Amino acid sequence: MPYFFYDEWLLILVLPAVVISIWAQIKVKYAFSKYSKIGTRSGMTGRQASIAIQKINGLSIPVETVAGSMTDHFDPRSNVIKLSETVGPNNSIAAIGVAAHETGHAIQFAEGYAPIRVRTAIVPITQFASGISPWLVFAGMIFSLPYLAYIGVMFFGMAVVFQLITLPVEFNASARAIRALESQGILNSEELEGAKKVLTAAALTYVAALLVALMSFIRLLLIASGRGRRNR
Fold first, then answer.
1. d(CA 82, CA 65)
2. Which pLDDT tens digit goes with each residue over 211-223?
3. How confident is residue 11, by pLDDT bands cut at 50, 70 and 90?
4. Phi, psi for residue 73 in degrees, rounded to 5
5. What is the DSSP letter of 7?
6. Which residues are catalytic?
7. Residue 167 has what pLDDT?
8. pLDDT of 110 strictly over 50
9. Between 88 and which of 47, 98, 197, 224 could a Cys-Cys bridge form, CB atoms 3.0 to 4.6 Å apart?
10. Whole-model pTM?
11. Kind and range of the H or E element at 75?
12. 82: helix, strand or coil
């Protein structure tokens, strides 16, 4: 992120967004911790739930266990659902909700859901563009090359686009997860409310990430246009 030099826009725009992002992270950790301590009546583990949801959708994607906590993800390159040690082998409400969400991503990819295809395709260019963009803005200012600074701003815009595309991907995966858990009776109505709280809290982190990216983009734009003040 472009925080490497100080200006008033860092405090006015970016810092509040970062605080919101930290709050969102705390909220999701709290929700996960709370509902990871409550087992489901079915006794089904996260891995078993993923397999059950896949089966009803005509899929048979490998489900692997990976180290760590909250490291769960669907890897479209290897077509593998990777569940953390706190999700895959556990039968808590949180574990079932997260496993169903990641399975939702796998279903999205299998069905050719456009947003996830686009997001996967632009990951490499987004990583490169957002990494180099603040340096281009900085170089443009130092060497009085406005066009270079604006190129840097445009590059960082890719990060905003990426986060924007991420929102429908994540919300859709959560919606698929809740529908599957309810329709297949994996969770009862009370447990389903807990899963919704976990997934809603997780979704807030993506909203916060978009806010941080957007505020950082506006900050760079203001700096490039000469409205930012750089304090040495």
1. 6
2. 999 999 999 899 8
3. confident
4. -170, 160
5. B
6. 102
7. 98
8. yes
9. 47
10. 0.90
11. strand 73-75
12. strand
